[in-house]
Design a protein that fits this description.
It comes from Fundicoccus ignavus. Residues 1-124 form the NADPH-dependent FMN reductase-like domain. GO terms for molecular function: FMN binding; oxidoreductase activity. This is NADPH-dependent oxidoreductase. The chain has 173 residues and is of the alpha/beta class. The chain has a single domain (2-172), classed as 3-Layer(aba) Sandwich (Rossmann fold). The chain has five helices and eight strands; from the N terminus they run βαβαβαβαββββα. The chain has helices at residues 16-27, 55-63, 80-87, 109-121, 152-172; strands spanning 2-7, 34-39, 66-72, 96-104, 124-126, 132-134, 139-140, 144-145. Strands 1, 2, 3, 4, 5 and 6 form a six-stranded parallel beta sheet that branches. Strands 7-8 form a two-stranded antiparallel ribbon. The longest helix has 21 residues, at 152-172. The radius of gyration is 15 Å and the shape is globular. It binds flavin mononucleotide. Flavin mononucleotide (FMN) binds next to loops.
Length: 173
């Protein structure tokens, strides 16, 4: 199956690519599945309803069997870029599973929980395990991602839950 690792931030100087690449590296040990980084910034999505939609975004969301959202906390919520990207597709998301990986000064869990609520409206089931990285301990100078080795077990739990649910969801799509 094919999974998208969706980078939630588009900010200049963002750290999300480092987090996405780490998740992709751990996921590459899952035999038989593909994990592709999907960068919202590549799609130049207009704010919904303010310009020409980008059909390439909808096609990408449609072709994926499941998602891993890389979620960063901005003002106790998800980034506007991620909310807009979620709103910019509809039935392309339906009946799939997702894992959420978050980061922030408190692990980004407030933003992660928001994403979970929004996903429910899009018929996307968020798996239980949410690896949550701390800006103070899993990053150097808040900018270089250096996750502790102990975090890998949680990432693998999330991946196994995601793959199991994605197999099940494929049967009903
Ligand atoms: C506008 C803004 C608001 C932020 N608010 C929070 C916050 O409420 N809680 C938190 O833990 N971190 C907050 N941060 C810190 C971000 O989580 C941190 O900068 C992180 O690196 C952002 O992800 P990115 O680098 O991939 O964009 C905020 C950062 C920005 C730019």
């Amino acid at each position: 199956m094919k999974f998208g690792i969706i980078l939630g931030s588009t900010r200049e100087g963002r750290v999300s690519p480092q987090v996405g690449e780490y998740i992709q590296k751990v996921a590459s040990k899952q035999a038989g599945h593909e994990f592709e980084i999907v960068d919202i910034a590549d799609y130049n999505l207009p704010f919904l309803g303010t310009g020409e939609a980008n059909p390439a975004w909808n096609a990408k969301i449609n072709e994926l069997d499941g998602y891993i959202f890389i979620v960063q906390e901005y003002n106790h919520g998800m980034s506007a870029a991620l909310k807009n990207a979620l709103d910019s597709a509809r039935d392309e998301w339906f009946n799939k599973a997702a894992g959420i990986v978050s980061y922030g000064s408190g692990g980004g869990i407030r933003a992660a929980e928001q994403v979970r609520l929004v996903l429910a409206e899009q018929y996307v089931a968020g798996v239980r395990t949410n690896p949550a990285f701390n800006l103070f301990t899993d990053f150097e100078n808040f900018s270089t991602f250096k996750p502790g080795d102990h975090m890998e077990a949680g990432v693998n739990d999330m991946l196994n839950e995601l793959i199991n649910w994605s197999v099940a969801f494929k049967a009903i799509r």
